Amino acid sequence: MHPSTFSIVAWDPETEELGVATQSKFLAVGSVVPWAIGGVGAVATQSWANTSYGPRGLELLGRGAEPEEALQRLLADDPDRESRQVGIVDAKGRAASFTGKKCFSWAGGRIGEHYACQGNILVGGETIDAMADSLDSTRGQELAGRLTAALAAGQAAGGDSRGCQSAALVVVREGGGYGGFNDRFLDLRVDDHDAPIAELERLLELHRLYYPRSNEPLVDLDDATADQLARDLRTLDYAPRGDSTTDRPALLEALNRFSMNENLEERIRDDGKIYQAVLDYVRSRAAAR
After folding, report:
1. Same domain assignment for residues 142 and 158
2. 3-state secondary structure of 41
3. Which of 83-118 are b and which e, b meaning 16 or more Cβ less than 10 Å from the residue's Cβ?
4. Cα separation of 251 and 26, whole Å?
5. How many domains does the chain have?
6. Per-residue model confidence (pLDDT) at position 215
7. Listed residues 156, 188, 210: the one ending a domain
8. Which residues, at least 6 apart from 136, have a Cβ–Cβ distance to it below 8 Å?
9. Lowest model confidence (mean pLDDT) among 85-89, 101-105, 177-181
10. Scanning 26, 174, 226, 228, which has its CA 20 to 30 A from the CA of 199?
11. Domain encompassing residue 110
12. Are 60 and 144 in a shared domain?
């Protein structure tokens, strides 16, 4: 396969998340390029992609190999290595990138602090520089947002010379998956779209609604907040039984029914607080009635 594309692998020192973002003029690039395991590392494999580089590279990292060592071991037994392109980052932020001499022009990569960017069949090297500059300028921000912003910057600088078709974003952290049972915090794919990065950004906004982030604003469910929430829920046909300020369990039961129906179950709380994002969502839904 030949997903000629541009990609990023990165590590966040604050959250210890690892991520891969990619865009290509290729159907369902997310099924080929991104590979990641929480607490281990992330790999992007492309350009006549050898998909075994993903699991094998992660296995090597998991056994203690540094990214450059893992990369060289992957390339060593591959007779077509000069047609490959790969980026690797580990759970300490060390990164490596390789572009074979037979990759179609323009092709190349750039390593920065805690990341590697690479791409082939690009309009020019400006795409890689724009992605790296975007990552450098957004340190400290949410990793998923940084990765999609870097993709958008790369596309604005020229991107894949053949155009756009698909994009993908994967972010992992240990215990960060749904219900805490795996490490896949975020796995979004746009398989075939005229503007795949913009669509990926839209999906990321939905993910932010459905899944809480660290340090996300919380609101005390005081009497005034509870009264407004009860009115909004009644508007949406989730009327709590009893008075919202004196029968708080009834209000929470109505809110939980709404949350389950709207796929907000990851945001249900029982500590007398509510996410500001949930309040805003209920308010906007009620206002639209």
Report:
1. yes
2. strand
3. bbbbbbbbbebbbbbbbbeebeebbbbbbeebbbbb
4. 49
5. 2
6. 86
7. 210
8. 112, 113
9. 177-181
10. 174
11. 5-210
12. yes
Amino acid at 81: R
In angstroms, what CA-CA distances link 225 with 32, 204, 272, 273?
47, 28, 11, 10
Between CA 86 and CA 96 the distance in angstroms is 8
Tokens of 17: 């998340």
d(C-alpha 221, C-alpha 234), whole Å = 17
pLDDT digits (tens, 9 = 90+) for 100-135: 999 999 999 999 999 999 999 999 999 999 999 999
Are 262 and 240 members of one domain?
A: yes
Of 3, 20, 231, nearest to 116 by C-alpha is 20
pLDDT at position 229, please? 94
pLDDT reported for residue 1: 46
Q: Residue 11 is encoded by which pair of tokens?
A: 């590590």
Cα–Cα distance for residue pair 82/75, rounded to 1 Å: 9
Q: Record the tokens describing residue 108, joined without a space.
A: 């190349």
Average pLDDT, the chain: 94
